[in-house]
Each structure stands twice: as structure tokens, then as C-alpha cells.
Input
Amino acid sequence: MSFQLTEEQEMVRLMARDFAAKELEPVAAERDRLEIFPLDVVKQMGELGLLGMMVPAEYGGADAGAVSYCLALQEIAYSCASTALTMSVANLSTEPLLHFGDEAQKSEYLVKLAEGELLGCFALTEPEAGSDPGSMSMTADDRGDHYLVNGTKVFITHGEYADVVNLIARTGPEKGSRGLSAFIVEKGTPGFSVGAREDKLGLRSSNTVELHFNDCRVPKENLVGRPGAGFKVAMIALDSGRIGIASQALGIARACLDESIRYARKRRQFGKTISSFEAIQWMIADMATGIEASNWLILSAAWKKDKGLPFTREASMAKLFTSELANKSAYLALQIHGGYGYLKDFKVERLYRDARVTTLYEGTSEVQRLVIAKNLLKEHD
Ligand SMILES: Cc1cc2nc3c(=O)[nH]c(=O)nc-3n(C[C@H](O)[C@H](O)[C@H](O)COP(=O)(O)OP(=O)(O)OC[C@H]3O[C@@H](n4cnc5c(N)ncnc54)[C@H](O)[C@@H]3O)c2cc1C
Output
């Protein structure tokens, strides 16, 4: 077993680190304050291959693999967690077409998504269907040459700016997660409109909106996978999504640690730097230990994905552990900064707000525990 990254993986990490330091770090706080969704940055990331990292080169992707994807995403999140979410959702949006799309769909959409020419979003959540997508009410009725889609999706990341939507809707009368199907829907399709923009605690330069479908005619050829396979399509996309969110959380936790060390070495109380106090050292040690553990959980899940092995349980473990760690680290980092951490002048204030959502989206911590336990119990059947 090797603990060594390949030369290519190291290069991807350094490229993303360099990009984040130059293009994100200096402006992230202001974008957060003004709630600016940085379309120019999305374009740049597309050109660097950061939006289709797990897509093979024949479909326009960087073909870098999941390990490189996680390393790069971490670096982006270290400087700007909002941009990391954009990157994560853009990459997740390639998964349904990559695994279930036909060749026509791949050449029409996947190549453009992977090259960054199109931005994709992923629409699963509804007002009454969050942790339980099987209870969704959006319908897509088979009308011969098209499906007629009606309903509302909520919390859709960069839905206002996306060119195409990966949409999950109910096509069959079956209850629960059966009877759902996946579609790719283009912006501008009559009957499809973008609704209210959410005003969020954190990730304020990521865009979050409602999407409305009102007698929206989606051509039959835009069905992704077979009718009824929608839940499976969504879950496979979310497996990859979860290693992405775990990486975002790890980037946030690492930033918390670095900010804490920097501050603790400078700030003096009782005639000494606060870094000389054991209480502060323990907080730093706890953050660093969690970061190390998270790193290996993420790499192990990503490595399994790259090897074509099952990684659902590992992805959930990585997401659960690292998102909880990011929250703990943000709490400790703010504690180390004292009252100053509560001010917008310090990066930890933004990290604290940005960390919060990582235990919520793409499956709450409670849902991750359900997934992990279900997988373990199944193994012992
Ligand atoms: C910033 C942001 C961006 C998002 N982006 C997207 C996106 O791009 N696309 C998309 O489709 N969705 C997106 N979401 C939605 C997100 O995935 C959901 O919010 C999440 O899945 C939780 O659903 P919910 O909010 O309805 O909470 P609920 O499902 O109502 O959960 C409420 C509470 O009950 C708990 N709970 C629920 N069921 C169980 C159970 N069986 N056992 C134990 N506890 C349970 C939950 O863990 C939680 O604590 C986003 C959300 C946010 C905040």
C-alpha cells in the first residue's frame, strides 16, 4: 500500500492551490459580503478542467480521477467555500450523463459540461421532500414524444446561472423511490422558470434558488437512463457529491487550523503569546488530528471510486466525519480568536458560517449514519 500521491495528483493539487491563492483568496470576503456569484471564475475553472474532473478525455473531461478531484476541491474550499460548492455541484452534474446517458446525450451535453461551456445543476430537493426524496411530488407525465413536468424544486445550487438541470421527477404511479426518473432540462425550455433566491447564513457567494416547472415539455430524448431509474441515478451522483462535500469541509477545517495557528502565535495576553497556553495548544492539536483522519477517509473513498470499487459507505463516512469536523474546527478557531473572531474583519467569521451547511446538504449527518448503518447491516445479511 502506498501513501504517496502520484506526480499528476500533486500537480493538480498545486495548480488548484495556486489558482485559489491568486483568484479566490483576495476577493472571497468581499464576494461573500456582496453575494456575488463569480461567473468569470466559473469560466476560468472550466478552462482549467476543474468542472469535469472525473469525466474521461473522450467526453471532454480532465480524466483526473476522484483522488485529484478531492485534492483540488479542498484547495478551492480553503480559500472560498462558496466557489468550492459551485465546483462540486458542477462535477456532480456530469455524473448522471456519464453513467446513464446515451451517446447522443453525452455528445450534446456531457462534453460541454465537462469543458465548462455549460454549467449544470442538480435538482432533487422539494419543499416536502428533503431527506426523503422518495416522497417527492414533482411529476413528469409521459405524453408520447415528450414528458410534461409540473412541480417545484427548492435549494438548487446555482440554479439561476445553470444552463442545464439534472432533474429527478416522478414518472410512475409507484410509491416511494420507485417510479422516479432522471432528465436533463435546458434553461429556456418553455414552462421552466427560476424562482426566489435564498438569503443564506453562509456560502453567500453561492447562488441558491427555487426552480418552477409549469407544464414544461421535456423532449423524450432528454430522459437519462431508463424510466424508473431516477432514484438510482440520483444516489450514484450523490456518492460522488459526498466526497466532494467532504473535501469542501476539509478545506474549511484546514483554513480554520491555519488561521488559528497564525493568530495564536501573534496574539499576546498575560505577557505571552496565547499559543503558549496549553488550552490553545489542545484546540490546535484536536483540529489537526481530525484533519489528518478526514484526509485519509476522503482519500480512501476517492481511491475506491477510482478503482471502480463500491464506495457508498466510505463516501458517507468521509462526509459525516469531515463535515462535523469542519463545524468543530470553526468553533475552535473562533474561540482562539476571542472577540475578534466574531468580527467580519477576520476570515474565521466566514469559515464559521460556511462550515455550518456541510452537515446538512447532500444528506444530513443523520442521513449519512443511516446510509453507513444500512450498508453494514446488509453486509451481514
Ligand atoms: C445551501 C444549500 C444548497 C443546497 N443545494 C442543493 C442542490 O443543489 N440540489 C438539491 O437537490 N438540494 C440542495 N440542497 C438541499 C439539501 O440537500 C437538503 O436541505 C437536505 O437534504 C435536507 O433536507 P431538508 O432541508 O428538507 O431537511 P429535512 O429532511 O426536513 O430534515 C430535518 C431534520 O430531520 C432529520 N431527519 C430527517 N429524516 C430523518 C431520519 N430518517 N432519521 C433521523 N433524522 C432524520 C434531518 O437529519 C434534519 O436534522 C441544498 C441545501 C442548502 C442549505
